[in-house]
Amino acid sequence: MTAASTPSSSPSLLRQTGNQRILSIHFPHLSADRVARIRWGASWLTQGRPDHPPVVFAAKIDNAMRLVALDTLAERVGLKRGQGAADARAMCPSLDVIIDDPAADRALLEGLADWCDRYTPLVALDGKDGLFLDITGCAHLHGGEKVLVNDVLSRLFLLGVEARAVISSSAGLSWAVARYGSAAVIAPEDAERVLAPLPVAALRLPEETVALLDRVGLKEIGDLLQAPRAPLTRRFGSLLLLRLDQARGHADEPLSPRLPVPSFSAERRLAEPLQDEEHILELARHLSGDVRLSLERHGEGGRLFELLLIRVDGRVFRIQAHAAVPLNDADRIAALFRERLQAVHDDLDAGYGFEILRLSVLRSERLDPAQDDFSGVPDESQPLAAFADKLCARFGPDCLTFATLAESHLPERAGGFAPLTDVATVIGSRPVDEKACPENRPLRIFTHPELVEATAEVPDGAPRSFNWRKTQYRVARAEGPERIAAEWWLDGEGHPTRDYFRVEDQEGRRFWLFREGLYGRETSSPRWFMHGVFA
């Protein structure tokens, strides 16, 4: 077992620097591997390809079915991407043509990106068939860069996915060599030597630019390195030199991680996979202790935690737990995941067991130390926070709500309910402004006002009687009107004005009604609505 606890600054963009090392993984036959795993199992590469015709994938392009992806055998028989499906079948009558499914390919690529979290949390998608991994400072944990590359390729081979992987100091160079070169690990000083013999297509240029460079005799990147830069820019545009500088590591190329980078994390790599839920919880408690040390050093508490479980066959499970207050207590963090595991028990398939567990803090806040009183309880928020954490972990973050006020003229918008994500918003919050909650409001306000039939004096008189829910009421007393104008920045300038009345019928029941529209100015036939009832 190995453990690691690492804080980070959670960058939204990863910038190329002189000391950075980028791993590019290219999946040349992603679609074919996806279908082969379904047909012949994940270990089909280790057992050898069955006796099966070439497999190609076709999609409708320019009103014609054309090949968009091929397997290795189809490439050997001379088929090309972009070729018509009818022509391909004429060349190989036994051809197995499958309709392209970009969504399924994307799902597999994202699953592989989750699997790559075993090496680094900084994983970015690279188009439709590749990944970028920022492994700066991570390679020594896996025995060095060469060992890491071999481990990636061997594990993917066992998962039934063909891949090529290259490590260099820039994303552009790693991308180019993974698709057009043969090196696996490139030292910074060897960048231009490795880059020079590659075709100009390795610079990720548009096809039109590549064809134009080919016509003038600039076929290799080395030809561009020796040519003057100003004429290249005038004839081929600035993108050419930008891609060239990015591949050489002379220009920044931001990479966006597909998932938030954890602030703190602790990890265990297991020699024997775990299957039992109690053992997983026990290990999660130990990881919580490691995370707690990092949180205490930085004076912070976690608000959003994630338990990452990587199964032996490569499937990844992510279990998140929210805390109502900032936490750095190992037992309470572990208790969150005990509730979460019970909630997702049916969806958590351990299979042959989990080989990697990682506990991460995705969001943290400043945690000021609190002095315990004689009762041993620091403050009144702790019992409520523990209760909220337990319920939200079991039933979801939206199971608890609290009443909130909003800045709006219209009563149905002035209040509502919000998920209880922070106990501090309920305990110790500032007093409610009396003007924001007038005393003359009814105890029960309808979310949607209900239309009624009313008889009233025009233009501004109170209702004398009204029919509501098939019952007629005769008004004995009335107060009003209280005029509320619409919010023109939300509803538009033509939205009608409301005149509210508090009325009491002959039996003492009190209601809150409003007339919609000013008689003679906004409408000739105002409508009446029931908006609430008093106790």
Automatic annotation (TrEMBL):
Domain (DUF6504): residue spans on this chain: 455-531
GO molecular function terms here?
damaged DNA binding
Cofactor dependence is on:
Mg(2+)
Residue ranges annotated for the DNA polymerase Y-family little finger domain, each copy included: 263-346
**Record domain UmuC: where:** 53-171
User: Which reaction is catalysed here?
Assistant: DNA(n) + a 2'-deoxyribonucleoside 5'-triphosphate = DNA(n+1) + diphosphate
Source species, domain of life: Bacteria
**One family name in Pfam for this protein:** DUF6504
Q: What is its EC number?
A: 2.7.7.7
In the UniProt record, the signal sequence range is none
Keyword set includes DNA damage = yes
Its GO biological process terms? DNA repair
Its keywords, alphabetically, are:
DNA damage
Chain's role: Poorly processive, error-prone DNA polymerase involved in untargeted mutagenesis. Copies undamaged DNA at stalled replication forks, which arise in vivo from mismatched or misaligned primer ends. These misaligned primers can be extended by PolIV. Exhibits no 3'-5' exonuclease (proofreading) activity. May be involved in translesional synthesis, in conjunction with the beta clamp from PolIII.
* Subunit structure, as described in the record: Monomer.
PANTHER family, sorted: BLR3025 PROTEIN (PTHR35369:SF2), BLR3025 PROTEIN-RELATED (PTHR35369)
Q: What is this protein called?
A: DNA-directed DNA polymerase
Q: Which organism's genome codes for this protein?
A: Sinorhizobium terangae
